[in-house]
Design brief:
The protein is 48% helix and 12% strand. It is an alpha/beta fold and 336 residues long. The longest helix is centred in the first third of the chain and has 21 residues. It folds into 3 domains: 50 residues, Arc Repressor Mutant, subunit A (Orthogonal Bundle); 59 residues; 176 residues, Ribonuclease H-like superfamily/Ribonuclease H (Nucleotidyltransferase, domain 5). The protein starts with 7 loop residues before the first helix and ends in a 21-residue tail after the last helix. Strand 2 and strand 3 form a beta hairpin. About 2% of the residues have low confidence. Helix 1 runs antiparallel to helix 2. The strands form 2 sheets. Strands 1, 2, 3, 4, 5 and 8 form a 6-stranded mixed beta sheet that branches. This is IS21 family transposase. It holds the Pfam family rve. GO terms for molecular function: nucleic acid binding.
Length: 336
């Protein structure tokens, strides 16, 4: 970037104007800066994927660090750090690992390493340029996020030719992003719990908590502070020695990870299956499993490892062992 930087207040203003629909020409006139300068800072801010509100919330120091991330600056001053940050991000997912421990370990390899506070600032700036979901540092074996997709898949009844729509369940582990998907007849309690049991069997272990949306099949009574779970879900959680955590109402970031996984499932599972007719639920789920496996083996963007590799290297061993028998749904009958 240029040797002299624009005032941080003006940078926040120009981004605010831009998100309000003001043209670059008008922004230039209002703030008394050239259109090239407006374009340069807007390019950097747009790449950060932050909203105007999030940029306004940044301190001046955080904003400076964010805007320093361009190719010229990185290659001359901090190129080795930005090359290491994908590995750092992977290390931080391990249980008990902190930024300070990682910084200390790299200090032995790089005696001229930046200070710990500067290391944290630069890592935070790097993180902001990654997928928004990656900003959460989920620990290995900590949580499994589950939800149903909004769109549906279908099978054809071979006898009548009737098209039957099916729900699609998605589960994703917080640290590795390792994904499981399955079609089922409905979102009712028995199907929902059955899908979760299948997901745990697929992962070969149990996380410390399962995070679910406020579905009727999961929550008897919603509450901002203490939602009431249905008896069957509690019994399943007890059987697997885990906890169920319903997401908070009107808190979309609580389930951002699984919602992002759902979007990817649309692209990597729904789209390839769209041209194929299926006549049984089993055949459809076999195809879903095959495409999900390809997705899990595909490297993350800007990283040289996949969800499967991350799962096997840091998360699999942190899951607790499955019980000898899988959970079987109990039917509750009111006595008279």
């Amino acid at each position: 970037m240029a040797n002299t930087h624009l005032d941080m207040r003006k940078i926040k203003q120009l981004y605010r104007f831009y998100t309000q629909g003001v043209s670059k020409r008008k922004i230039s006139k209002r703030l008394g800066i050239s259109r090239n300068t407006v374009r340069k800072y807007l390019d950097l801010l747009i790449k950060s994927k932050l909203t105007s509100e999030e940029v306004d919330a940044l301190t001046f120091e955080e904003l400076r660090i964010l805007l320093d991330i361009d190719h010229t600056h990185v290659t001359t001053r901090h190129s080795y750090l930005f090359d290491l940050f994908p590995i750092v991000n992977k290390e931080l997912k391990k249980v008990g690992v902190t930024r300070y421990l990682v910084w200390e370990s790299y200090l032995q390899k790089y005696p001229d390493l930046v200070s710990y506070s500067r290391f944290c600032h630069l890592y935070k700036a790097w993180s902001r340029n990654q997928s928004p979901v990656m900003r959460f540092n989920h620990k290995a074996g900590d949580k499994m996020f589950v939800d149903f997709t909004g769109k549906k898949l279908s099978i054809i009844d071979p006898g009548t030719g009737e098209v039957k729509e099916l729900e699609v369940f998605v589960a994703v582990l917080g640290a590795s992003g390792y994904t499981y998907a399955e079609a089922c007849p409905s979102q009712k309690r028995e199907d929902f719990i059955g899908c979760m049991v299948n997901a745990l069997n697929f992962y070969g272990g149990v996380p410390k908590a399962i995070v679910t949306d406020n579905l009727k099949s999961a929550v008897t009574k919603s509450s901002k502070y203490e939602p009431i779970l249905n008896e069957s879900l509690l019994a399943m959680a007890t059987h697997y020695n885990t906890t169920v955590l319903p997401t908070r109402a009107y808190r979309p970031r609580d389930k951002a990870l699984v919602e992002n996984a759902v979007k990817i499932v649309y692209t990597r599972v729904f789209a390839p299956l769209g041209a194929t007719d299926f006549y049984t639920l089993g055949a459809l789920n076999t195809a879903i499993l095959e495409h999900t496996a390809v997705h899990n083996k595909t490297n993350f963007q800007s990283r040289n490892y996949s969800r499967l590799e991350l799962f096997e290297s840091i998360e699999k061993q942190e899951l607790t062992a499955l019980p000898v028998e899988s959970y079987r749904l109990r039917q509750y009958v009111m006595g008279t």
